[in-house]
Amino acid sequence: MDVNVAIRARRSISKFMPEPVPPEALTRLLAAGIWAPNHHLTEPWRFIILGPQTRHGLAGRYAELRMEKAPAEAAERRARIREESERKFLAIPTIVAVAAHQEGDEQRRREDYAAVCCAIQNVQLAAWAEGVGVKWSTAPIIRDPLAYELLGVASASFELIALLYMGYPAEIPTRERKRPLDEVIRTTP
Q: Which residues are documented as binding site for FMN?
């Protein structure tokens, strides 16, 4: 698939077929990430493929965080939110956590964060070209200390950037994309 076609056609996928992305395909997709540009060649990206035990632990914590948003007096509703949230999380066929190695001064940390975001976009485009859908999630779970613990990520040295929900699309959203270009471009004198 031509890169320009992939850029314009790619959509965030929320509904997946049940089968996970095969390990060899997942390796190819993540390999696209390491070709992202980064200043000083720091290669700050880290990809963590979630195994079953970690998925269950994170699913429980994800559900708790979602449930905590509901009013305390709505006990039945909170229980339903927890159950639905855990089921939804566990239904995602493949999940990859993405972290940025963070060291140096604030400028270097910003550059490395940006580089990891570029790596994520590379993964998304490579995935789309192979018929794999991705949703880049920045849900509160990625800021939760328990997530760092379950993923084996040292929060003193790494920042979780995303959970990539991956799988074969069961549904591809359609929508008109973006503002007209002339609304977001200007030329200086």
A: 10-12, 39, 136-138
Residue 186 vs residues 104, 182, 183: alpha-carbon distances, Å: 34, 8, 8
- Model confidence over 145-182: pLDDT tens digits? 999 999 999 999 999 999 999 999 999 988 776 788 88
pLDDT in tens, 92-107: 999 999 999 999 999 9
Residue of higher predicted confidence among 49 and 66: 49
Binding residues: 10-12, 39, 136-138
What is the CATH classification number for the domain harbouring 63?
Answer: 3.40.109.10
**Count of domains for the chain:** 1
In a domain, 189, yes or no: no
* CA 127 – CA 124 distance, rounded (Å): 5
Domain annotation covers residue 19: yes
Q: Evaluate if pTM is beyond 0.70.
A: yes
